[in-house]
């Protein structure tokens, strides 16, 4: 006999869970991670970003080694992506200097560096920044230390995120140094509590793989029961993925990190004009199925951008249907 007294409560709880949406954790760096965060806000109940800490270019490359903090640039971009409402604080964090000793620095990067000193840690600085901005989610460094990216490619060792991004050739191994550095405990916590874990879009080696190679991150993904989703890039990059099709990207991701195959791959099916030697990334559906992955194809292109870019609204709708 059914317990009628508890049934309405159970139904209400199910409805509440459905309305709240899934807990989403997106992992990577750069513009790609910012885009998927904006997309995830359209359907998720909670969004957390886990950000690579191996960036050594631009403002971040100048600040991180000097101040012994994780590179703040991608963290700042993620904070802005998770802040849908315009405000003076958002304008301040997005401001970039053009002259004098601070030329090239983002004011937001400098504020994060200052907050790390005031609050006592970079993670506390991010939490304070989330409060100032009114962010609709959290930004978490993959590790609490600045790390260096290193690859082995056809007998050559290439060190540094910028150099790796420009390197052409088959990548045999990827490391982040120092090898003794641990992942952020909070990063592991949110992965284990996630309903969806999203990898990509973004630079395959220097964003996605770099974040997954931080000790503990891939292991946490492989332990969790969360649905693993891979969002494919639209086109190849001159350097780290030149000449690679969709399956090549997937194979490299699995081979270089040990992460389990994704449950779903989200890829673009809109035609894109790309100048040689770059190519549009396409997936063979039958080959994709051999990895145990479902292939979701839709128009993901932002037609307002000059360079091939994901449209956050289109991507959000594609993710919502999974």
In the CATH scheme, what's the topology name of the domain at 22-54 and 143-320? Rossmann fold
In the CATH hierarchy, what is the class of the domain at 22-54 and 143-320?
Answer: Alpha Beta
Computed over alpha carbons, the radius of gyration is: 20 Å
Structural class assignment? alpha/beta
Average pLDDT metric: 92
Walk across the major sheet and give the strand order.
3-2-1-7-8-9-10
Which consecutive residue ranges, at least 5 long each, have pLDDT under 50? 1-6, 11-18
Number of strands: 10
Major sheet size, sense and barrel closure: 7 strands, parallel
- Global shape: globular
Topology as a string of helices (H) and strands (E): HEHEHHHHHEEEHEHEHHEHEHEH
Number of distinct helices: 14
Proportion of strand residues: 15-25%
- Helix fraction? 40-55%
CATH superfamily of the domain at 22-54 and 143-320: CofD-like domains
Determine the N-to-C terminus distance.
Answer: 36 Å
CATH architecture of the domain at 22-54 and 143-320: 3-Layer(aba) Sandwich
Give your account of this protein's structure.
This protein has 322 residues and is α/β, with parallel strands linked by helices. It has a domain of 211 residues: CofD-like domains (Rossmann fold, 3-Layer(aba) Sandwich), CATH 3.40.50.10680. The chain is built from 14 helices and 10 strands. The strands form 2 sheets. A 7-stranded parallel sheet has the order 3-2-1-7-8-9-10, with helices on both faces. β4 and β5 form a beta hairpin. α2 packs across α14 and α6 packs across α7.
């Amino acid at each position: 006999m059914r317990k009628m007294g508890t049934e309405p409560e159970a139904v209400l709880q199910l409805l509440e869970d459905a309305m709240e949406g899934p807990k989403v954790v997106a992992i990577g760096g750069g513009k790609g991670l910012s885009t998927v965060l904006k997309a995830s806000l359209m359907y998720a109940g909670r969004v957390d970003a886990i950000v690579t800490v191996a960036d050594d270019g631009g403002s971040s490359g100048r600040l991180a080694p000097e101040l012994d903090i994780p590179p703040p640039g991608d963290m700042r971009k993620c904070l802005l992506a998770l802040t849908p409402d315009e405000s003076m604080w958002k304008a301040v964090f997005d401001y970039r200097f053009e002259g004098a000793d601070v030329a090239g620095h983002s004011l937001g990067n400098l504020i994060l560096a200052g907050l790390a000193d005031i609050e006592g840690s970079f993670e506390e600085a991010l939490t304070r920044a989330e409060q100032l901005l009114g962010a609709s989610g959290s930004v978490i460094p993959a590790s609490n230390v600045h790390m260096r990216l290193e690859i082995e490619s056809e007998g050559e060792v290439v060190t540094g995120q910028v150099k790796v991004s420009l390197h052409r050739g088959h990548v045999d191994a990827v490391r982040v140094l120092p090898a003794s550095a641990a992942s952020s405990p909070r990063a592991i916590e949110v992965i284990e509590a996630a309903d969806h874990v999203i990898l990509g879009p973004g630079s395959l080696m220097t964003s996605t793989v770099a974040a997954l190679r931080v000790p503990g991150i891939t292991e946490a993904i492989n332990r969790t029961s969360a649905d693993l989703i891979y969002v494919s890039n639209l086109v190849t990059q001159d350097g780290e993925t030149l000449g690679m099709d969709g399956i090549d990207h997937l194979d490299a991701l699995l081979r270089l990190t040990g992460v389990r195959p994704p449950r779903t791959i989200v890829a673009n099916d809109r035609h894109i004009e790309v100048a040689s030697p770059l190519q549009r990334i396409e997936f063979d559906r039958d080959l994709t199925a051999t990895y145990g992955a479902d292939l979701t194809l839709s128009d993901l292109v932002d037609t307002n951008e000059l360079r091939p870019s994901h449209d956050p609204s289109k991507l959000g709708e594609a993710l919502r249907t999974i």
